Amino acid sequence: MEVTDEQRAAVASLPSLAQRVVMERIADVEASDVECYRRAKGGAKSDSAARNSVHKILTNANTVKVLNMFNTDQPLNNAIMSREELLEDLTNVARVSVADVMSWTTCVGSLLDTQTGDESSYPSIITVKNMNEVEPWVLKCVKSVEQTKSGMIKLTLEDRTAARKLLIDMQGYNAPIKTINAEITAENVDDNEFLEGLESFGLK
Fold first, then answer.
1. Separation CA 21–CA 31 (nearest Å)
2. What is the Cα–Cα distance from 187 to 25, expressed in whole angstroms?
């Protein structure tokens, strides 16, 4: 379904975190509440705190009213980008290269300066590829195309480094490492007690 102006305004009326949680809930109805909260960049550290926070958000009368406006079995069409779409777009930006949109031609031979008699090599020719030569996903990675005063083409791609940082954050590659400091004495401990001790530290 298409999102109406009324629905957009209703979402915009919520606090920023609630807006993001609602958008995640609408985009992925099968995701858990905590997953929606995490994807919305909620600040709670533990799952318990995240559950409490997202419960307050989703049970708030204003949030419930907004969610009810989207209470339909029809899939959203071009309304909210899904997590998978976002990851795909960011991955494309992280992988795109200038060679995907431009080409280089090296000329063979030399130029002769008739005044000085000096010879110089032909310069390489850099050209922007025709539209039909560029993949659609590459075109989405082009930030801007400008023509300078000298007639040259200035082409800017989306920031690959920024895209990679976002991917790292979204995929949890830089998640903090939990270190457990504990003193374990194995003397005269049977197997069951040892396993119970490991489980108490969150290890199996």
1. 11
2. 51
Long-range contacts formed by 117-120: CB under 8 A, 24+ apart: none
Q: Cα dihedral sign for 110, 113, 114, 118?
A: negative
How confident is the model over 48-90, as pLDDT tens digits?
Answer: 888 889 999 999 999 988 888 887 444 444 455 677 888 888 8
* Domain boundaries defined on the chain: 5-80, 92-162
Looking from the CA of 180 toward its CB, the CA atoms found within 13 Å total 10
Token readout for 5 is 């102006």
In the block, tokens 């940082």 appear at 165
Is this model's pTM higher than 0.70 or not? no
Which among 144, 137, 40 has a CA at the least distance from the CA of 89?
Answer: 137
